[in-house]
Write a structure and sequence with these properties.
This protein has a five-stranded parallel β-sheet with strand order 2-1-3-4-5. It has five helices and five strands; from the N terminus they run βαβαβαβαβα. Helix 3 links the parallel strand 3 and strand 4. By secondary structure, it is α/β, with parallel strands linked by helices. The site of magnesium ion has 6 residues, from loops.
């Protein structure tokens, strides 16, 4: 079973994603901000993919991604940003921080699953 870590400060989004992903047979873990997200990554072995918000308290998503990108243990894990942000500047910052895919909220569930299946077949 593929393991996905959701990192988003919105409980509504986390619940929505959990329902969707568990329905598709993924195992789901949650982090509530960039700091907690990194802790969850360390707490759960074998995370296959991270879905990450940009705007979060404490540590934002791009900062968390940058930290993951510099970590030999985690840098190969694909990261999908799921955010209301869509500026070219943030996307290029994401790319530099190892972000693999970028989907803008509100998101289409089928499209999200299609992207996931491509990233972790
Ligand atoms: Mg947010």
């Amino acid at each position: 079973m593929k393991r996905i870590l959701i990192v988003d400060d919105s409980e509504t989004i986390r619940n929505q994603l959990r329902r969707l992903l568990e329905g598709k047979g993924y195992e789901v873990f949650e982090g509530v901000d960039g700091q907690n997200g990194f802790e969850q990554l360390r707490a759960h072995k074998g995370v296959n993919l991270i879905i990450c918000d940009v705007n979060m308290p404490n540590v934002d998503g791009l900062t968390m991604c940058g930290k993951i990108h510099l970590d030999q243990d985690y840098k190969s894990i694909p990261i999908l940003m799921l955010t209301t942000e869509s500026s070219a500047e943030l996307k290029s910052r994401g790319k530099a921080a190892g972000v693999t895919a970028w989907i803008t909220k509100p998101f289409d569930a089928e499209r999200l699953i299609a992207v996931l299946q491509k990233l972790i077949p």
